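To: structure subgroup
Subject: Chain for Friday's discussion

All,

I'm putting the inputs and outputs inline so they're searchable in the archive.
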Amino acid sequence: MVSRCVLFGGSQESFCTGCAVEEGEEAQTMVNKCVFTLSHFENWDEIDVKRFLARALENSKKNMLSSENKVKLAETLGSILDHSAQEDDIARIVGSTFAYLGYNDQAMEGFDLAISRKEDDTTALNNKGVLLARIGKVKDAISCYDKVTSMDPNNEKAWFNKGKAYIRLKRPTKGSECFKRVVEINPKNVSAWNNLGVSLRMMGKPKQAIKCYNSALRINKNYKWAWNNKGIALMFRRKYKEAEECFKEVLKVNPDFEEAKEGLLACRGK
C-alpha cells in the first residue's frame, strides 16, 4: 500500500522581508553587475539601499545570478550588514537574501541582528525559524514560531510553519492544532487544509482527513497534493476504486507525479 502523504508548504515557508519598496532601474543594473560597493552604499539613502536589496532578494529567489555574482553579492551584503544604521528591516532583508543564496550562517546573523534591534520583529523571528528548520534544528524553529504566535496570535505564516515543524517531529496532534488555527485565520489556505488532512491521517483518522482534502479541492480543484493524499486516505479505507480516480486526477495535472503513479498501480493490484 502507498503510505506516503505529500506535504506541501506553499509560499509560507519562504523568507519574508516585511517591507515593500518600489524598484528602480539603477538598482536592477547594480544587482545584475554586482558592482554595489561600500562607497555606493555610503552615498545612497535608505530607500536606495532597500531598492537594491529588493532586487537582490528577487533575483536570489529566482536563482538568476551566476556563482561568481552570488559570491560578489554576498560580499556586498556583508558590507551593508556591517555598516547599516539601526535599521532592523535592512538587517532582515539582508538575512533573507543570504538565506536564498545559501549562506546560512550569514543569514542567521542578519536575522539575529534584526531581532536584537527590535525584539518584537515577528518577520525576522519567523524567518529565523524557517532557517533553523532548514538546517535541522526543528525544535529551535518551533521556539521562534512560538514567540511569533504569542506576540501575534493571527500570524498565519508562523502557525503554518509551526505545524509543518511538528509534522517533521512526527507529532501530528500538535501539527493539526496549528493547521486548524491557520484555516480559522484564513479558510482559503489550501496548503493548510491539505496539511491538516495529512496530520489527521497520521493520527489514524483517514475519514476526517478526506474531509480536509475535499475542503482544499473546493478551493482549488486542480490541487494535486490534495488529490494524491485523498487517494492515499481512501486506500487506507480500502476504497480502491475511488482512490484510483483521485490518482488519475493528479496525473491529469502532472503526468510525471511519481507518488500518484505508484498509487494508481497499487489500486489496480487490489
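Points worth raising on Friday:
The mean pLDDT is 83.
The CA atoms of residues 163 and 175 lie 4 Å apart.

D.
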